[in-house]
Amino acid sequence: MTCDACVRVQIALEVLGAQGVGAFLVRASTTQRGCLALSLRVPRDFAHHGIAHYLILRTPKGYKIKGFTKEFASLSALVTHHSVMPELLPVPLRLPRAPRAPRPDLEPLERLAPAPRAAHPAHPARPAHPAHPHRAPLDV
User: Fold this and answer.
1) pTM for this prediction
2) C or N: which end of the chain has fewer Cβ atoms within 10 Å?
3) H/E segment holding residue 79
4) Beta strand 36-41 with 51-59: parallel, antiparallel or unpaired?
5) CB of 51 within 8 A of CB of 13?
6) Taking the CA atoms of the chain, what radius of gyration do you get in angstroms?
7) Which residues contact 59 (CB under 8 A, 6 or more apart)?
8) b/e 9-34 (16+ beta carbons within 10 angstroms → b)
């Protein structure tokens, strides 16, 4: 491993070491020129340092993790799939979530929903005519 490669691995260890299990990063491989690596925060009983590394190969169809059978058209597709179905990974990839801070320029949904109305005898809640025999009535 070259000095530059050592630095990349060290950065991955530092960044992921402070994160929860499932945190990951995709970086240039330090061992296989032209390949990528997936560095994944795992439980310490799986890997001593709490980080596992996987080689991502470029294939004619796109990308795949070395030793895995499924191929994906893009890196995004590979990451998204392994965030839902870890396959052979010890844990699913944890995708970052958007912050949940409320936007002051938007009304809360509760204010937008109309208050429920009581059925008025002159205006029944359901139409007076029978529903079509092949369609369920819609409440929209």
Assistant:
1) 0.65
2) C
3) helix 75-84
4) antiparallel
5) yes
6) 26
7) 71
8) beebbeebeeeebbbbebbebbeeee
Token pair for residue 100?
């949940």
Give the percent of the chain with pLDDT over 70. 67
Contacts of 23 (CB under 8 A, 6+ apart): 16, 40, 41, 94
Strand ranges inside 10-105, DSSP E: 24-28, 36-41, 51-59, 62-65
* Gap between the Cα atoms of 123 and 82, Å rounded: 53
Going from the C-alpha of 63 to that of each of 46, 56, 130, the distances in angstroms are 25, 7, 56
Helix (H, G, I), strand (E, B) or coil at 39: strand
Q: How confident is the model at residue 11 (pLDDT cuts 50, 70, 90)?
A: confident
Give 58-65 contacts, CB < 8 A, sequence gap 24+.
58/34, 63/36, 65/38, 65/89
Round to whole Å and give the CA distance between 89 and 98. Answer: 24
Residue 37 bridge partners (DSSP): 27, 55
Return the half-sphere exposure (C-beta side, CA atoms, 13 A cut-off) of residue 54.
24
Do residues 56 and 82 touch, judged by C-beta distance below 8 A?
A: no
Write down the residue that tokens 């990308």 correspond to. 63
